[in-house]
């Protein structure tokens, strides 16, 4: 006998894409679904569309709430979810018809607490490409969290189903807008005894330019650093810490370069520089690590960049200011 899967869809101002998303869930080959649409204070027609689907399909539940962000919306869905398994979908994305049938079958037959599939990047141009996940399984928390930083798993919550017991008491942090999924998984996976990764791409991640994830710099970038600090302090495996450090270095340098590129958040410039310089010896001497069937390297250009940032940061700052002025 099949069990109920609660699918939580957080909705905010995506009327152009919403029907595609909801239809992809309603038309799943796995029918025992509880579909929770959380209208997070949309000011377009999303609320009306949600109500329309509630009338059409008795598996659909709708919550209308004041805008509080994706984490708040997902939490509202979690509060009323009754399924034995829980899943999340972003309302501008969509899923393959057999996604939940395949994830559920793998979870039940082989007793996995969490099962995730590969994702397919779907571009507005019509192009698509699948991420490089391979089939794997993990049986300890340190293995799972390290797998995320080594790209053998994804930090996303949307390409997974979770056994209810794993996330029953876990909620998304409302003040985190970037890396909220990473923090959520770093907490929930502590209760998971096993995770399965499927190579098949079943979740379609739509790439649109006005998406929050495409903002060049935001407050969320700096809260992401706090998330990474929390996970690092709780990690007991040097392999996990090493993989996390490479992720951390990438994100810090990318954020600093974007501050210089845009001229925004300049009050955070020195703080971000100090974060990078805390890792300078790892950047200079630990040049590579194994990551998802390849070796990730810190190239000579990046090491020179950090060396200049350390000793002569004004060179980089003045060059960036001239480039901004020339535009």
Fold and architecture overview:
The chain is an alpha/beta fold and 327 residues long. It has 2 domains: 5-213, Alpha-Beta Complex (Spore Coat Polysaccharide Biosynthesis Protein SpsA, Chain A); 215-326, no CATH class. It contains 13 helices and 12 strands. It has helices at residues 15-26, 46-56, 70-80, 99-110, 141-149, 164-167, 180-188, 219-234, 238-262, 269-278, 280-285, 300-311, 313-326, and strands spanning 5-11, 33-40, 60-65, 85-90, 94-95, 114-123, 128-130, 136-138, 160-163, 195-207, 288-291, 294-297. The strands form 2 sheets. Strands 1, 2, 3, 4, 5, 6, 7, 8, 9 and 10 form a 10-stranded mixed beta sheet that branches. The protein has a two-stranded antiparallel sheet with strand order 11-12. Helix 8 packs antiparallel against helix 9 and helix 12 (300-311) packs across helix 13. The chain is globular. It starts with a strand and ends with a helix. The model has no long low-confidence stretch (mean pLDDT 92).
Explain the layout of strands and helices.
Elements: E1 5-11, H1 15-26, E2 33-40, H2 46-56, E3 60-65, H3 70-80, E4 85-90, E5 94-95, H4 99-110, E6 114-123, E7 128-130, E8 136-138, H5 141-149, E9 160-163, H6 164-167, H7 180-188, E10 195-207, H8 219-234, H9 238-262, H10 269-278, H11 280-285, E11 288-291, E12 294-297, H12 300-311, H13 313-326
Parallel strand pairs: 1-2, 1-4, 2-3, 6-10
Antiparallel strand pairs: 4-9, 5-10, 6-7, 6-9, 8-10, 11-12
Helix pairs in contact: 5-9, 7-8, 8-9, 9-10, 12-13
């Amino acid at each position: 006998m099949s069990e109920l899967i609660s699918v939580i869809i957080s909705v905010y101002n995506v009327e152009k894409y919403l029907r595609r998303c909801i239809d992809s869930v309603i038309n799943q080959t796995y029918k025992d679904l509880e579909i929770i649409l959380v209208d997070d204070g949309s000011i377009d027609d999303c609320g009306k569309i949600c109500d329309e689907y509630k009338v059409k399909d008795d598996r659909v539940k709708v919550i209308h709430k004041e805008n509080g962000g994706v984490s708040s919306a997902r939490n509202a869905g979690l509060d009323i979810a009754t399924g034995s398994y829980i899943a999340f979908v972003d309302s501008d994305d969509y899923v393959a018809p057999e996604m939940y049938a395949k994830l559920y079958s793998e979870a039940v037959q082989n007793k996995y607490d969490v099962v995730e599939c590969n994702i397919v990047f779907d571009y507005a141009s019509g192009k698509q490409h699948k991420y490089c996940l391979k089939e794997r399984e993990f049986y300890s928390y340190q293995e799972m969290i390290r797998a995320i930083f080594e790209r053998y798993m994804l930090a996303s919550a949307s390409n997974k189903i979770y056994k209810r017991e794993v996330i029953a008491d876990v909620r998304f942090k409302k003040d985190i807008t970037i890396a909220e999924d990473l923090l959520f998984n770093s907490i929930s996976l502590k209760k998971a005894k096993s995770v399965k990764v499927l190579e098949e791409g079943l979740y379609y991640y739509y790439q649109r330019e006005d998406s929050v994830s495409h903002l060049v710099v935001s407050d969320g970038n700096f809260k992401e650093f706090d998330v990474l600090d929390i996970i690092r302090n709780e990690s007991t495996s040097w392999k996990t810490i090493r993989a996390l450090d490479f992720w951390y270095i990438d994100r810090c340098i990318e954020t600093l370069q974007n501050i210089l590129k845009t001229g925004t958040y300049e009050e955070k410039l020195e703080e971000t520089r100090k974060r990078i310089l805390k890792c300078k010896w790892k950047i200079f001497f630990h040049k590579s690590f194994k990551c998802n069937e390849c070796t990730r390297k810190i190239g000579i250009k990046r090491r020179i960049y950090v060396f200049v940032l350390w000793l002569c940061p004004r060179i980089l700052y003045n060059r960036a200011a001239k480039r901004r002025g020339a535009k």
